[in-house]
Specification:
Number of strands: 10
Keywords: Decarboxylase, Lyase
GO molecular function: carboxy-lyase activity; hydrolase activity
Organism: Athelia psychrophila
Oligomer: single chain
Number of domains: 1
Protein name: Amidohydrolase 2
Radius of gyration: 19 Å
Family: Belongs to the metallo-dependent hydrolases superfamily.
Length: about 350
């Protein structure tokens, strides 16, 4: 696996781990281990992986975090994370963009007044990252809930790009085995549940100008959409089965940890190629792990005209600012940057 001479991919799903995240502690809680060498993280670790995988630009986002509270501290932390990501983009022109974090979503005023405008208008974020739900246990609320309508109204007004990532929440029972931790078995299903909630509540249709990208090819969404279409209609959904399927197909889907022949064949039947974006989930996984899926993509679309669109053009069309980031970077020094190891 080596794509270093062909920097052409845009990685829509690429995390950053600031020191305040305490990723090592989260690993223990979630039943996951970040690959050796990726912690503590800094941009040079990502750049090495990007060069090996042939990635020109990666969109930075924090791992989905559904926890928090309405507080000034929560607002300050979101601002600090977004400023940190914006600084990385500035220091490595042409190599990074970012999807802004928001305060705990129940803090409607903090989300609307303190961060969406600042992130998109001042820091020039390329979009917004959201978890599938906010809170935990019985207090958890999925993002299609009416109380979040003001947030969706603002994102719809701005025609924003939103990255929807499954929350890292345990189910009502422990995960089955140490080899099947929360990121392995729970996160993809959380993505599906949030997508389904947006569809059956009519919010996906109501806020149709928001361009929502589902993590990990939508988790189980392509396989369970038809189940939702008939059964949720039976339970009282105002949409017809055909409308429910239509709304599921209006999402975008990124390929991180999901690019395998079986899944890709299903996606070809489910959506048009312009709805699929390349992603890796690095540095939550190793370059070798991300490379396994990347090689599957390369092989599957070997002689397919869709390949370039999926690898880069769909993301560039969805977020024109990314093209400007790449085109405005001039010279090797500008592309490689000089990281100042800033802490937050």
């Amino acid at each position: 696996m080596s794509h270093e001479k062909d920097l052409h991919r845009v990685d829509f799903h690429h995390h950053f781990f600031p020191s305040t995240l305490n990723k090592a502690k989260l690993n223990i809680d979630l039943g996951w281990k970040t690959p050796a060498g990726n912690l503590p993280w800094d941009p040079t670790i990502s750049l090495q992986s990007m060069d090996a995988l042939g990635t020109q630009l990666a969109l930075l986002s924090l791992p989905a975090n559904p926890f928090g509270e309405v507080s000034g501290e929560n607002r300050q932390l979101a601002r600090a994370h977004n400023t940190f990501a914006a600084n990385v983009c500035e220091e490595y022109p042409g190599r990074f963009g970012f999807l802004a974090s928001l305060p705990f979503l129940d803090d409607i005023e903090g989300v609307l007044l303190a961060e969406i405008a600042h992130a998109l208008d001042v820091l020039r974020a390329d979009g917004i990252a959201l978890a599938s739900s906010y809170g935990s246990g019985l207090d958890s609320t999925y993002i299609g809930h009416d109380k979040y309508d003001r947030v969706w109204e603002e994102l719809n007004r701005r025609e924003a790009v939103v990255f929807l990532h499954g929350a890292q929440l345990p189910s009502s029972t422990p995960h089955p085995d140490p080899l099947l931790g929360i990121p392995v078995v729970e996160v993809p299903n959380e993505t599906f549940k949030a997508a389904a909630h947006l569809v059956v509540t009519g919010k996906k249709r109501k806020y149709a100008r928001v361009k929502i990208v589902l993590a990990h090819l939508g988790g189980s969404s392509p396989f369970l959409a038809a189940r939702v279409a008939v059964l949720s209609r039976h339970m009282g959904c105002a949409l017809t089965a055909e409308e429910i399927l239509e709304d599921f197909k209006s999402f975008y889907f990124e390929t991180a940890l999901s690019a395998h022949e079986t899944n890709l064949a299903a996606m070809e039947k489910f959506v048009t190629p312009d709805k699929i974006l390349f992603g890796t989930d690095f540095p939550a996984v190793s370059t070798a792990m991300a490379g396994w899926y990347t090689d599957n993509l390369d092989e599957y679309y070997l002689n397919d005209a869709s390949k370039e669109a999926i690898m880069s053009q769909n993301a560039l069309n969805l977020m024109p600012g990314l093209r400007a980031r790449i085109e405005n970077a001039t010279g090797v020094d500008a592309i490689r940057g000089t990281y100042a190891n800033r802490e937050i």
